[in-house]
Amino acid sequence: xxxxxxxxxxxxxxxxxxxxxxxxxxxxxxxxxxxxxxxxxxxxxxxxxxxxxxxxxxxxxxxxxxxxxxxxxxxxxxxxxxxxxxxxxxxxxxxxxxxxxxxxxxxxxxxxxxxxxxxxxxxxxxxxxxxxxxxxx
Amino acid sequence: xxxxxxxxxxxxxxxxxxxxxxxxxxxxxxxxxxxxxxxxxxxxxxxxxxxxxxxxxxxxxxxxxxxxxxxxxxxxxxxxxxxxxxxxxxxxxxxxxxxxxxxxxxxxxxxxxxxxxxxxxxxxxxxxxxxxxxxxxxxxxxxxxxxxxxxxxxxxxxxxxxxxxxxxxxxxxxxxxxxxxxxxxxxxxxxxxxxxxxxxxxxxxxxxxxxxxxxxxxxxxxxxxxxxxxxxxxxxxxxxxxxxxxxxxxxxxxxxxxxxxxxxxxxxxxxxxxxxxxxxxxxxxxxxxxxxxxxxxxxxxxxxxxxxxxxxxxxxxxxxxxxxxxxxxxxxxxxxxxxxxxxxxxxxxxxxxxxxxxxxxxxxxxxxxxxxxxxxxxxxxxxxxxxxxxxxxxxxxxxxxxxxxxxxxxxxxxxx
Lengths: 137, 416
Hints:
A: 137 residues; alpha/beta; Rossmann fold; 3-stranded antiparallel beta sheet; B: 6-stranded antiparallel beta sheet
């Protein structure tokens, strides 16, 4: 859309939620969609990696304990091709080894379950860009 | 002698044998009491003569110290002679104690380096002295006695009824399940938090203006949210119920038990300890036509649990060590009716057991498990106790190293 010589683009931030719990995927997606964020969901590592390759999300919330591939395995795969995409690990009760491995591979941080959506909102919005980008022609 | 589990019976048998087989006036056994730090009179038998015997020997007494030093049997006559010759004050004290015990011969009983018991023997009825030959015989007897006492003390220390033993084993297993259980329960809370949070958020965002359409939309969303909340609550409750079923002490009652229910229940619990999706479980039976067994649900659940867990460990060991690209860990449960029994076989394709380890497997505390989640090593021992002693069934193990194992249970069918 053009206005007074400036083009305004609506850029919706892309959030990827990787969690093997369907309720988490469903309700987290509901929540962030209300905030003009494009939410992708993946129930496992392979699906997540495919979405990352196609959609290039701005932030990934990555569950540590999953059945098919662990969060660390996904992170490791991801970092092979994408050293910079932002990742926040979501964990239950994790041991030091996992935390160290995650830090070595590069993560923004860790959040521990259970936490409430309000807390998550603050963290996510802090990491994502504004939805509107104003560019002078 | 090694078969006597009751320490008291054992000690009484020892003194009886000594007084009757060897024809001596009396025999006493003093056994070390850890709590009281004394050698307490465990058993005594007097054949000739009268009177009470001394109740205990102090750990710090000269006799005990002398025995610890010499590590050998003491013949009263010899030491008496020596004390008269040397006038050694220690020897005199030792002599006095032996006299008070009416001892002619004192035999120390060692278990490893510890002086566990002291046998005091009176004079021979014949009046003859104890010879070196006698001592040689008693030394062998002492070793055997030591083993027997150790055995009896083991069972005494255990002092557990079967039920307590099963409970102890279960509690230990629950410890190893804590990780899986807490993860599952934590996830329920996490889900509940998200669902409620999103619902609240919807309400807040729409508080200002609510058109009729918007009301309908919001109501639909809220309805969905509460349905999911309830489902999570139910799931959480089921996890807790499963755990309670597992921890419950087996009621004495033996009733017709459905094999499929036990298996389902055991698998439900086992998933908290192991990654159940790494394993394929195949049921080689029709749940609708297999007979019910006469038994105790909780105990049978414990048996099935342990068998699945053992199979899993064997298969994981093979998976991690054997480097077979196409290896699929598979557990098959067969059920056939045979006369008045249900033959249930847990067949795995794991590491199998080496021939030399096979017979040891059912002994308490023996385990070949190398994983960090070793458990108590009571699994197979408990299984045998439950199946054979309590259910009057049979347990058989067939195994081939690097091939797999079959655990066969024969359990009586419920009549009526």
